[in-house]
Specification:
Number of domains: 1
Structural class: alpha+beta
Distance between the termini: 48 Å
Helix content: 10-25%
Number of helices: 1
Shape: globular
Order of helices and strands: EEEEEEEEEEEH
Number of strands: 11
Largest sheet: 9 strands, mixed
Length: about 160
């Protein structure tokens, strides 16, 4: 899973189409999954709902539709409709267009680009390991950095040849 935190009011959780690392049979979408050590500090959030999008756990008919926290974990789960799911190792762990949350109230606690962590079944790291997540910069930010770098390199070459 990738998480784009470049705009705290529009944080996007997206599937990488990676398969789960462990087989998990008949877990509940109400338990969800936890992104361990996501926030940079202890944080308590009762429940918050996404702005838009969808992110389905492997084989589920309902998308995650809420998050809460337990210490630094970010727990994605389904608040409205519980269904049982199987995380099969021969299918992507998550599918969908991506889930968008407004995390601007917690912007000071968001991880920085390049941060990685593990994803576990349930509310914390005691559940079976599913895979990992990585915090990424927004693609336009990367393009901007590359563009600025190329301009700087071009100016450097121009000065050397003068």
């Amino acid at each position: 899973m990738t998480v784009d935190v470049s705009d705290p009011s529009h944080v996007v959780f997206s599937s990488t189409q990676a398969n789960p690392e462990n087989l998990v049979i008949e877990t509940s979408t109400a338990l969800g999954v936890s992104l361990v050590n996501f926030f940079t500090s202890y944080l308590e959030v009762e429940v918050s709902f996404p702005v838009s999008g969808d992110l389905f756990p492997n084989g589920a008919t309902v998308s995650f539709d809420a998050f809460s926290t337990l210490e630094g974990e970010f727990n994605l789960y389904n608040w409205a409709n519980t269904s049982y799911i199987d995380f099969l190792t021969d299918s992507p762990a998550f599918t969908g267009e991506g889930l968008v949350f407004d995390l601007s109230s917690w912007a000071a606690y968001l991880p920085t680009s390049g941060h990685t962590g593990t994803i576990h079944v349930g509310y914390d790291e005691t559940g079976l390991l599913l895979g990992s997540y990585q915090v990424i910069p927004e693609p336009t930010s990367v393009a901007l950095m590359v563009g600025v770098g190329l301009i700087g390199f071009g100016l450097h070459l121009r000065r050397r040849s003068a």
